[in-house]
Amino acid sequence: MRAATSPEAAQSRIGTLETPCLIIDAARMDRNIARLRDRLAPMGVPLRPHLKTAKSIEVAVRAMSSPQGPATVSTLKEAAFFAAAGVRDIIYAVGITPCKLAKVIELRQNGVDLAVILDTVEQAEAVALASRTSGEVIPALIEIDCDGHRSGVPPQDKDRLLSIGRAITQGGELRGVMTHAGGSYAARGATALRQAAETERRSVVDAANILRQAGLPCPVVSVGSTPTAHYATDLSGVTEVRAGVFVFFDLVMAGIGICEIDDIAMSVLATVIGHQREKGWILIDAGWMAMSQDRGTSKQQIDQGYGLVCDSAGTPFQDLILADANQEHGILKVRPGSNAALPELAIGDRVRILPNHACATGAQHRSYHIVHGTSDIVTNEWVRFTGW
Amino acid sequence: MRAATSPEAAQSRIGTLETPCLIIDAARMDRNIARLRDRLAPMGVPLRPHLKTAKSIEVAVRAMSSPQGPATVSTLKEAAFFAAAGVRDIIYAVGITPCKLAKVIELRQNGVDLAVILDTVEQAEAVALASRTSGEVIPALIEIDCDGHRSGVPPQDKDRLLSIGRAITQGGELRGVMTHAGGSYAARGATALRQAAETERRSVVDAANILRQAGLPCPVVSVGSTPTAHYATDLSGVTEVRAGVFVFFDLVMAGIGICEIDDIAMSVLATVIGHQREKGWILIDAGWMAMSQDRGTSKQQIDQGYGLVCDSAGTPFQDLILADANQEHGILKVRPGSNAALPELAIGDRVRILPNHACATGAQHRSYHIVHGTSDIVTNEWVRFTGW
């Protein structure tokens, strides 16, 4: 593992960082990780964190149960990066294409147990063929469509499940089944969230039973989304839970009711660069390049614009949002309908913006500046990577 | 300047690139650059291209009138990068903050004529103070608000203009006035676009006259946006035009009527990873991480979703759009209301997605893969940078 601390960063304070930049409150992050781990432990189901959110080895080692994993990734670049950093048990959780199998084989031959996912016979045949040709047996999980939101085999489609399962075993390894309850992001209220978790669980348990009854192996039964991971009350038959954004949380998760605003560990530090006083606008040097264009709260009960504005210690101003964003300009306004006063912020003052979507905002930055609670001392700078 | 060609890239073809990745059709790019240059030449007004779109020295040298500039940037990192590559005449076109002046001075002392912009007396006083303290006279342009869309001084606010101008000259250099007709993105039709260009021109010409009549210098009168640059018919009194996205164009510009679909030089190459046939969906390995979450066409007459889908040679399929996007998954669908048939695309087939917004999509990638017209040969890979 690489050294996490740069000497300059170890000396700095929030007030001296160049803006815009990305801040992580490690106290909140550690609390969020402990919360999900403590929640799953009594159910006896291990966590396989999704590292696509953080793309940082320092965050990964805190989220994983061991430095070797298990872990989930969304790109083969993530797989290669984390494998090079010592992670040994990885699922690449986007449907595999034949052209990516050479890279999968290369990573496996370097000692990482990398599994792929798929939902068609064509992909299964490609995995089996590549396994036979290379002599490297590639493990594959069948993706199940638990809620119709994206990819996967409907769990009741027995013929397709068995055809895929049998095709994998013609050279590859049928590792199990997996699903992602992406539809849970639209669930509102505890009852709906518990139902989404149960639907997710049932989909893979049913699919696993179909495979096993046909004599096919299915050791892994994997579920995962941050909302369902926090609301599941019964994980019978499930062997692992995947989740990603729980590490940092964000405004979308707060809007669904999975966390509170003061659990959100990620913020973008910005500097005031101007005013349009007669319009009630404050301009800052963080636009969509620093925040992303994720507007995930736009369909929630509280639309947070491009983010919720806090002071430099991380305390939200009342109803102040990043209402509009150009590439490197942000416009702060009081939320429509609010009677809150626009805070007095002078040119050069600093604010911190909580993001709608931690995965998207994180991706706009090359590093995390680490703080702890309300302290203004920046103890570390952790590198994060991007691209494919 | 760095070498532009990597030996591996020089050997590759579109079919062998790892996906998702970013493609630039250099034939279209060169045509777009020539078009704007040819348009402005008879009016005698030089182009100061905005390098925030491309963030690549290879694109910059093609867009600029000389390897030394002039150029516009949106961050000090861009200024430092292009200065290191030999550009000598740069405007940093986001309102300056006092904490960034040390970096501005450092860059100027290294030989680049870097100018800043501002719209308050506080910023002007900070520029003057830093100039006096450092001995490095910082040039500043006063930002004018021509259409109310963002920052700047209203051109009729004579008192504020003169106060700012006088404050700059207490140590700094009053270089001139500048504006950006961001409101022109909402204009529709040639008449409205010509009017936006004329309003933009008038705003800075009027402001320059106010300054000059008070005995203040105003050598530079700078306008700029890609829509107005392509529709201005009279640039009397203007000394330079800035524009950025004209180099690549995108679906938003096509929707406004500034370019045709087949002028768009940027696309994201992706691979088919699955189907949900009963829903009419094709899944690909490019989601919002590869495209950005820019939905700039959502309020235009034709909503292109997250992008318009072409075959691997760059020819659009009829009415096929990237209708939905998760982090690394994209869902292709026929546009609502269209009778077009879903094309037959097998797992492993490649498509190219034209972006809504070239600045936003480009920012998600670390390099450009260069092709020429319908040839599938990738002649170069050009590095692009990100961050602050």
From TrEMBL, chains A, B:
Entry-linked SUPFAM superfamilies: PLP-binding barrel
Keyword line: Lyase
D-serine dehydratase-like domain ranges (all copies): 265-372
A GO biological process held by the record: D-serine catabolic process
Molecular function terms, GO-annotated: D-serine ammonia-lyase activity
The keyword Repressor appears for this protein: no
Residues in coiled coil: none
Pfam families: Ala_racemase_N, D-ser_dehydrat
Family: Belongs to the DSD1 family.
Protein name: DSD1 family PLP-dependent enzyme
Species in which this protein is naturally found: Sphingorhabdus wooponensis
